[in-house]
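Lab notebook, bench 4. Still working through the backlog of constructs that have no structural model yet. Next entry is a single chain of 322 residues. Request: give me the structure tokens for it.
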Amino acid sequence: EMTLLAPWSYGEMDSAKLVNLAFLLITLTAVAKTARLLAGGIAGWWAAFIFATVGLISGQCVQGKNDLAAVMFLAAAGWCAWKMFHKDPDAPFPPPPGPLSRYSAIRLLAAAIWLAGCAVAVKVPAGLGAAGLMGGIFLIQRRLFTAKRLVLLAITACIPVSGWLAENWLFLGNPFHPFLSGVFPDLSWNPALSEALWKLDLVLGSPGAHWDGSALTGIWRVFGAPEIGSPALFAILPVALLKLRGRPVRLLEAAIGLAYLFWLFSPRNPRFLFPALAWASALAGVSIAGFSGRTALAGRALLASATAALSLLGAARFASPS
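Model written out:
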């Protein structure tokens, strides 16, 4: 959020919006690069196109919130996780085919965990997505983990967020301020204030900001509802989950599933699952790129028209005065 203070200090709301737009463009690049690792350039374009239809994007671009920055870090972490399995198909001098060396995979693992830590430093609820991604990596890449590496990787993840935790602890008494105020002594917050803010947000907040439905209907709420997810993504995601195979796909599937599971035990704000929408868009892009046959062109044209319409519906909000 501090990145928005400089343009705000000059009274330029539109300049402040451009900061979040920059985060969005970097996120789109990370989503596209992730999909390209498995299916080439066309998959990257489709993944970015699908992610651009996500309903949360337009709202986040016009608000002084830091969700897009957190998503940017976790989208980049997802790319590092997939890079452990692949070599860039668009490199000018591609190396011989085959998996990356163990040393290169460990470096990418460290980078992914560092970026996940950066996301948590930006926004504590990003820990749901970070934990999902780290859990997915551990399930699929267990051979890379030893006791010594686990300790070093845990330290790597904590470095980006340690400054904020130390500051909160020194000045407020609660390293996780404003969370866990009932556990740690907090000079400026307490559970009663959290409850009051929750009730106020239910009255004044946007529809669906806090949702209390079932686990199954939550899948539509997060991934398909136009104001939060994307109907286009919701339509293609089951195809991607059923059609795609391989350890890289299972890694992102596990990350999305674990993040959703952790989210069910949280306040269930759909914004907390924003990173999962980026990873799901990468899988959707890979699936669309694999369409073949006579119906492929017509299907892609129809999907392109639908996703373009959804993107344009939200783009006008960027120019709003809010």
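Notes after review: The chain has a mean pLDDT of 78. The chain has 14 helices and no strands. Flag for follow-up if needed.
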